[in-house]
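Appendix C. Worked example: JmjC domain-containing protein
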Amino acid sequence: MTAGSGGARTALRRCVPIPADDFAERHWDRAPLLSRRVDDYTDLLDLDDVDELLSRRGLRTPFVRMAQRGKVIAAARYTGGGGPGAEIGDQVHDERVFELLNGGATLVLQGLHRLWPPLIDLAGGLGRELAVPVQINAYLTPPGNQGFATHYDTHAVFVLQVAGTKRWRVHPPVVIDPVERQPWGGRADEVAAVAADPPVLDAVLGPGDALYLPRGWLHAASALDDWSLHLTLGLRAPTRLSVVEALLDLAADEPALRAGLPMGTELGDDGSSIAPVLADTVKALHSWLDTLSPDTVAAHWSRSTASAARPAPMRPVAQAAALARLSVDDRVRLRPGLRARIVTTERVAIEVPDRTVTMPAVCAAAVRELLDGRVHRVGDLPGLDDADRLVLVRRLISETILTLDA
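Step 2, the predicted output written as structure tokens:
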């Protein structure tokens, strides 16, 4: 965990009040943590903001979902045509949402980390501190109602209570550390059986309270006597299985592991025909694994997972307009959240998730500074004259690797 333990109102500090090192050692991927009066979350999203999103922002599915008494409501019941000039058929209809809310349904606003500015910033900050992709949903439940039955998630979550109160009942896992291919629906009977036992945590969250749940922990939540609004921050952290999957991708480059099976091999028999093949394959796998370096695996993993978390939003109109009048007095920085690394050979190669950008070797010193994450004045870049500095920076802004510092 890369977050420091100090600094008020860092993204992690808004979710847990204890030092980051303590949280990492005692709770991360291990045990729930209930925290009282951590922060006021109404600056992130409040009830008026929910109305703004529903009534004036033209939301479409899948940014909205509704559920009641443990069942998801068909989107056709609260969406429809967008009207003249909007050639879409799944825009949220606020009057239909009103009817369902009035009848006790829970509203879920999904993907707010891509939609609502304060939550875009929170997700970006928390993602950089924890080095994980972060998604954010909001849940609005009318008084006395429950949207979803007891279930578990295959990723850890922070729950931030914004308004109202909600009772949370938490039970231990039926699957330890489940991954996405192990959703709770495939174990519904086991989940229901464990949910019938007394919970290990039965607590009411009020405004400003926060709850951390590791993946796999069963939970159900119900609103009490007022409208409850909470945010769920999903932490899509990699696992050891992620490393295995990266190794599997790399294994395709090893001829001994691509070799075909002997003609007539029966994979569905009692195992006798594949036993020697299995022995040879395990031997080849061990030999190949011994040749791998951590750097090779890390580089592949970085390339294959970088697209899971988008870099910080940029202002395309402002960037394009400013690019035309770029001067040596302008200040630029690496686009926050963008994974970029330098490979220096005869030319300077900058690797980003979806491409490689090459520059003359004379740019090496300037590129190293530009990719260090700090803000730099164009005219101060080393190793180049002003004309070449402007050419370099224009190119990297055009490639959306750099952004102009406001």
